[in-house]
Amino acid sequence: MKKLAVILFILSIFFELHATKFSGEALANLEFKIEMTPWDKVEELLPRNSNFTVIDVGTGKRFKVQRRAGSSHADVQPLTHHDTKIMKEIYGGEWSWMRRAVLIQSDNLLIAGSMHGMPHGAGAIQNGFPGHFCIHFKGSTTHKTQSPDLSHHLMILKAGGKLDSYLNGLAPKPLVDAFLAGIKNKDQDLIRRTITNRNADLKILNEIQAVKWQTSMVASKENSFIKEINADLKLHLNDKGPVSSRVSFTVVKTSPMAPWKVDESALIKLLKERKVVE
Question: What top-level branch of life does the organism fall under (predicted)?
């Protein structure tokens, strides 16, 4: 009971501070703190057939899982029908590939991770979940690539309270990639952390069901505080279907020490024009 009370106390602080500029160091004086544990260590801490708790950062909901497989990340299954129900609630009642920031609680550990919510492949537990899903940790990769998935990487940083410091250190091109990853995952919190106007009306971004992109630098201007990044977008819009377009994003900073921020207005304008025309 004492261990559970301490964990609940930590989580209450975590969710309160995460809305501002939470840092994992904020918990250093407590018994537990959130760790950005690399995958090779996690694989030892959470071996196959081990059970642990997944805590969704966005909602605070938690459910139990069992690790079944996975060589570059953890392939896991909800432990019971009840756990499957909670997981589906986290995703709004529909399974999804969208990445979400999670904390993994096992014994006295809280480990930053990222999960998607799409059943796939095989599953061996009678839990109402048709397959397994994946949880990524620092340094994890997908089955198809040798480098970390960008969306998972950002969600791991978010779970660990290190997303702002990471974004603030990005150059213009990778910042636009992070902005587009936020759109891909319908994560308005991530989007707002990357843009010039954090209070912008972003409702029209909900028109985007899916997005793929390729970014490239435009020849540098004399003003060192303004950069242009081209993004070749392949969008799938609600009721409109596939749309391909090149959008030129302006990325700005207000001083030499200030972080870069993306001007989202070019994409907003494109979506509004498509909505009117079609």
Answer: Bacteria
